[in-house]
Structure formats: structure tokens, C-alpha cells
Amino acid sequence: MEVVLLQTRSMRDQGTNGVKSAMSASALFWCRFSGRMRLTATLLHLSVFAAALDWPREVWSTILQCKLTGKAQEVIASLFLSDSMDYDKVKAAVLVSYELVPEAYRQKFRSQSIKPSTQTYIEFSREKALMFEKWILASKVRSLQDLKELILMEEFKKCLPEMLAIYLNEQKVSSLSSAVLLADEFVLTHRVGGNDHRGKSACPVSVKPFKTPPPRPQKPRCYYCHLVERVARDCVILKRRNEKRGSDTQPMGFVSKSGDDNLGFGPFMSEGQVSLTESCATLTPVKILRDTGASQTLILQKVLPFDELSSTGSSVMLAGVNAVPVSRSLHRIYLWSGLFTGSCEVAVCPSLPVEGVALLLGNDLASGAVIPPPVVSNESISSGECEEAPAGVLPACVCTRSQAKKTHEVLDISRMWYGSVTAVISVK
User: Fold this and answer.
1) Are 303 and 351 within 8 A, CB to CB?
2) What angle (nearest 5°) sits at the alpha carbon of residue 122, between those of residues 117 and 123?
């Protein structure tokens, strides 16, 4: 502002009438625009006010320098004194420093996209139109022919290699004819071996497909002594070390699978039924094993469709022979068996140690009972073993006197004597 006042005073001494109006107008411009507008908007308003108020063009750069801050002031300070007083040169230098050149406007116009979260379609269309106008103004388009040249230039550069397009941008060509001439000169200059290489490489190179070599067969190697063609079981050094320290490994024998995996659990096996409801309509038969060493009853997870309704919301910690505790959720079910019948809480496990057993009955339900009580029938049950005996074969071939006394059998011994003996002796 002080610079403006000094220039105005010097012009006043010379008797210039237009400077007085310029001073007042410049002060009005400075008070109106407080530095919160963008650079392009500031330059636009400055030119509008300068033309409307008939400001001398000599003071435009001075007023603009009072307005700008930051990077723009650094750019103006790097100019010569004569260039800093020229408004057109100051404006061009400031626009270049902020990358506000035609190519920058074109890239922003082409890459601008809508932001649905923070922008409406009306705002997007307005910004798109504003960016297009800035691109047109920066490219100095004044007629339909200029606009046609601009669009054709853009499409022409899209079809060129990247290096050639960068070269044309550096040359700042404004017409399609000049761009075509520069492109041909560039190709002629960079031609290799007299061959045209538009969009092609300088020399064709035959590329052979890379074949991965087959992996070589690896020879066995001892993991202890690292000698090739030796395994650990034949390593002499490892055997000597084990003989000195003593082998901690225990011999293990191969046990073939028995026909009956539950051999020995037969007396403790029983049958039962389980259900998630008290109704007898949805009973599931299960095989039960009474485990007197278990304090918690366990059930297989696949037996019933357990869900959140059957869950109690709590869990129990289980530990076996390996002493590694695991957590299992508790569910409420209904059990019908010879040792326990009623509602109970069981721990659901994905597997049980005995194959074929679906429920492991612990001491929490069975208490002191080990096997179910025997069932007594009022009617005799015939085994049927002697009913199908072969003909001529008796079950017992000898009848002793003690057996005869028990059965009260009467023996006739009259045939043992000759004569008229008719007495019948009853042996009791």
C-alpha cells in the first residue's frame, strides 16, 4: 500500500489527473478484496475493476503485489525490476508458479470426478464448467476455429507415444499443423538405422521364453552331521552321542487294530435316550459309558442340535491325562437311562476318548451307581439250548442215587430176580 501511495504522489507532482482516480480505486479494491479469494478469482476481479474504473495499466502490477502473499511474493521478488512493473509478466509468472497453465487446467478438467459424500451434481457441473472455461481462457481460445484446434490437438497427443507427447508439450505448440511438423521432425531425428520406428522399438529383439530348469534330485543328507548320502539312523556320530548320554527315547511297538475297540468296557456300557425337550417325541438313542473317574458328564456335539436356547451360558474346565485344561460349554438336556433319568447339565465335546460312545456318564449324575440294577422277570425264560438236541443223544448219560433222591424217581427192580416176585420197592 505504501508503494501505491508513493507512486501516486509522484504522478500527482507531474499533474496526471488519471492517477488520482487510480489511487482511490486501488484503495477501494484493497478494502473490497481482503485476500480470502483464490488466485484466479483475484486476477479476474482485478481486471474487471481496472477496466470499469479506468485504472492506468502501470499500477496494476503494484496493486496486485500488495494483494499477493506467500509463494507468489517470492516469485515476484525473483523477477527483474522492469518485469515486476509489467502486469502481464507478473501474472504469467504467478500462474506458472501455481501450475495454472493450460496443460494443468486440461488435466484437472479431464480428471475431475464427483464426490457423492460432499458434493451435489449441481456443484459438480458448475465446477466442471468453470474448469473448462479456465482451460479455454488459458489456451487463448477466441473463436470456433481455435476451439477446434484445441480439441484436435488433444486427441492427436493421445495417439502419440508418451515421449513424443511430452516433447510437443514442451514446445508449446498451438496448432495442429505445427504439431504434426514437429512430430515428424522428432521421428526423423530419433530414427535408428534409417528405419521408421513410430510406436515401435529401435530394433526387433527375439525374446525366447524362459524355461525353468527341472529340479535336480536331492541326495539324502544327515540332519546331524550334514554328510551327503547318509541318513540319521546310519549316522555313526549320532549313535556315539546317544550311547554316551543315554537315549531318552522309549521304544514303541506297533499295535494292530483290534476287532473290538471297546474291549474291557462292556460291563460299563448301557443304552439310553437323550432329548433337548422333556417330550418323548424327539428322543435320540445313545450308547452310554459309565466313567467313575469323571466328575462331569460329557456328550458328543453331533448327537443333538445344540443352540443358544439349550445353552446355560456357562462353561466348565476339563483336564485329562495330559493335564491340559480345555473349556467346554454346558447345555441342558433330558436323559433317560438305567442310572439316571431327568434334566441335567452336560458338557458338549467334539469327540470322546472311546469310539462309539455318545455320552460319558460321570459322578455328577450317577453318583455311586456303577452299573444299572438287574431286571427281574416273573416268568421263566427258556434258553432253548436243549430243545434242539440231536435224536439219540441225551443231555445226561449217568443218573446217580443222589439225583434220583432229588427227583423222587421210582425204580422197578423186580426183573432182577427169577420167580414170582411182584413187590415194587420204592427208593426214596
Assistant:
1) no
2) 60
What is the structure's pLDDT at 360? Answer: 84
> In this structure, is residue 29 part of a structural domain?
yes
Query: What is the span of the domain harbouring residue 17?
Result: 2-138
Domain termination site, one of 124, 156, 189: 189
In a domain, 16, yes or no: yes
325 pLDDT higher than 70:
yes
Mean pLDDT of 1-5: 46
- Max mean pLDDT among 176-180, 257-261, 292-296, 401-405 falls in 176-180
Residue 288: exposed, middle, or buried by beta-carbon count in 10 A (0-12, 13-18, 19+)? buried
Parallel, antiparallel or unpaired: strands 269-275 and 359-361 = unpaired
Query: Do 14 and 68 belong together in one domain?
Result: yes
Q: What is the mean pLDDT of residues 215-242?
A: 77
Q: What is the DSSP string of 309-331?
A: TTEEEEEEEE--TT---EEEEEE
Same domain assignment for residues 170 and 282: no
Among 107-111, 214-218, 303-307, the least confident range: 214-218
Let me know whether 130 and 154 are in one domain: no
3-state secondary structure of 100: coil
> Does residue 149 sit in the same domain as residue 131?
no
Query: Among 319, 338, 316, which Cα is nearest to 327's?
Result: 316
CA distances from 77 to 26, 30, 91, 93, 222 (A): 21, 20, 13, 11, 77
- Mark whether 161 and 273 lie in a shared domain: no
Per DSSP, the residues of 8-51 read HHHHHHTT-SHHHHHHHHHHHHHHH--S-S-HHHHHHHHHHHHH
Do 109 and 7 fall into the same domain?
A: yes
The model's pLDDT over 44-74, given as tens digits with 9 standing for 90+, comes to: 777 887 888 788 888 888 777 777 777 777 7
Q: For 355-372, how does the pLDDT look when each residue is reduced to its tens digit (9 = 90+)? A: 888 888 888 887 777 666
Contact 58, 85 (CB under 8 A): yes
Same domain, 180 and 94: no
Do 75 and 149 sit in the same domain of this protein? no
CATH number of the CATH domain containing 320: 2.40.70.10
